[in-house]
Amino acid sequence: MCLHASVDGTGGGVEDSTMEVRFEAIEHDLATMKADVAVIRSKYATKEELAAVRADVAAIRSNYATKEELAAVRADVAAIRANYATKEELDALRAVVEVIRSNYVTREVLQRELHRQTWRMFGFVSLLTAAVYYIARYVH
């Protein structure tokens, strides 16, 4: 196989034509590879873009709740709803307490009235005792 070309540039022989076919095939493959690389660059992410996405995912994982954590919060809310009164229930209870306060007296008022009633009864019994003594002594 002779790889020498003629000095005048006209080439020489069979080896030049096969070489030309091989170069054309290489040029065609190179053009195809350039197109493939352009498609890859346009459709696929770079390492920097992947790193940015990984950082975003890490931030989401650290800042947002998981499904298990949400399920635990839902269970806590259900327990709160089951065990605690709503505002409407508290308002109804306040209304009942106001009715009770308007119909009943406080302990201090009750003690004061019992004290007054005791002295009234003492006075009445004293008067009754005096009347019985007077009748027994002077009226026979």
Explain what you see.
- The protein has 140 residues and is mainly α.
- The chain has a domain at 14-104.
- It is 81% helix and 0% strand.
- The protein has helices at residues 14-43, 47-63, 67-83, 87-103, 107-138.
- The relative contact order is 0.03.
Give the SSE layout:
Layout: H1 14-43, H2 47-63, H3 67-83, H4 87-103, H5 107-138
Protein traits:
single chain; 140 residues; mainly alpha; 5 helices; rod-shaped
Helix content: over 70%
Q: What's the helix count?
A: 5
Shape: rod-shaped
Low-confidence stretches: none
| H and E string | HHHHH
Residue-averaged pLDDT: 85
- Please identify the structural class as seen in this structure: mainly alpha
- How many E strands? 0
Rg is 54 Å
First CA to last CA: what distance?
173 Å
Oligomer: single chain
Major sheet, described briefly?
none
Gist?
This protein is mostly helical. The protein is 81% helix and 0% strand.
